[in-house]
Amino acid sequence: MSDASLTYAYAVARDRTPALAAEAGTLTGVAGAPVRLLTPDRTTTPVAVVSHVPAEDFHEAALHRHLEDLGWLEALARAHHGVIEALAAHTTVLPLRLATVYLDDDRVRAMLDDNQKLFLDGLERLRGHVELGVKLYIEAEPRPPAATDAPPDPALSPGRAYLRRRRTEQDARHDAHRAAEEAAQRIAVSARAHAVQWARHRVQEGELATGPGQNVVNDAYLVPADHVRAFREETMHATDGLPGLRVDVTGPWAPYSFATLTPPERGTASAP
């Protein structure tokens, strides 16, 4: 390591197999740096997936400044996830948090040694499983017919006509949310049959929204690989007969939402 670089850690895997080392050697990571595997000092497992990053961009103060730049953050996230997904296609990996940076390789080796049992237990728990994302949307506010299509009732005063229109709008919104609750219950039934763990994320709003409509459910499920097809098919039918709703199923992904280990940040350059 040079004084001008730090060590960026993407994920932890169980073993340094020739196939995994070869795949890692084909990858370009954050800041365009080559990706490699790092083994601990005292044992041979687990291994960390790492690359060098420039200190001028990843020391603590610079990193906090960059994380406020959405364009920089998006590029970082793409590189981080690209490495993890490429390796997850070959073996079980335990993703580390975005922007996990250590002062040097020795700190990473020490982290692997200190947390060996935690990592190996976590990898065993995730082995043979993938993450699927499920988002449920109310596609649009239902259009209240009294507000748009029906002619105003001449017997009503303007004030009473306004109140009637507002009540109709509220009823339409309540109907949409009741339908969404029913769809969510159907998704839960599929999850009980196929998933082994579940994580609820904040619904996406504003700049974080990735599609049209109002996101009302944003969940992740840990699913055995041989159940992915069945879970996806059943979940995609969750909105059958419920107009105005849409369900999206994404993945399979590396199990980001279920890599909950939090090793001590010994020698870390940053703790975002």
Structure description:
Belongs to the gas vesicle GvpF/GvpL family. The chain has 272 residues and is α+β, with helices and mostly antiparallel strands. A hairpin with an 8-residue loop joins strand 2 and strand 3. It starts with a strand and ends in a 19-residue tail after the last strand. The C terminus is likely disordered.
Q: Helices and strands in order, then pairings?
A:
Elements: E1 5-13, H1 18-24, E2 36-38, E3 47-54, H2 55-58, H3 60-66, H4 70-88, E4 93-102, H5 105-114, H6 116-126, E5 129-138, H7 145-148, H8 158-194, E6 197-200, E7 214-224, H9 228-236, E8 245-253
Antiparallel strand pairs: 1-3, 1-4, 2-3, 5-7, 5-8, 6-7
Protein name: GvpL/GvpF family gas vesicle protein
Main location: other
Keywords: Gas vesicle
Short description:
With 272 residues, the chain is an alpha+beta fold. 40% of the residues lie in helices and 24% in strands.
Largest sheet: 4 strands, antiparallel
Share of residues in strands? 15-25%
Multimeric organization = single chain
pLDDT averaged residue by residue: 86
Low-pLDDT runs:
263-272
By DSSP, the count of extended strands is: 8
Q: State the separation between the terminal residues, measured CA to CA.
A: 22 Å
User: How much helix is in the residues?
Assistant: 25-40%
What is the string of helix and strand elements?
EHEEHHHEHHEHHEEHE
- Counted by DSSP, the helix tally is 9
Strands of the biggest beta sheet: in what spatial order? 2-3-1-4
Query: Which structural class best describes the helix and strand composition?
Result: alpha+beta
Radius of gyration (CA) equals 24 Å
Described by the principal axes of the CA atoms, the overall outline is elongated
Family: Belongs to the gas vesicle GvpF/GvpL family.
Main location: other
Protein name: GvpL/GvpF family gas vesicle protein
Subcellular location: Gas vesicle
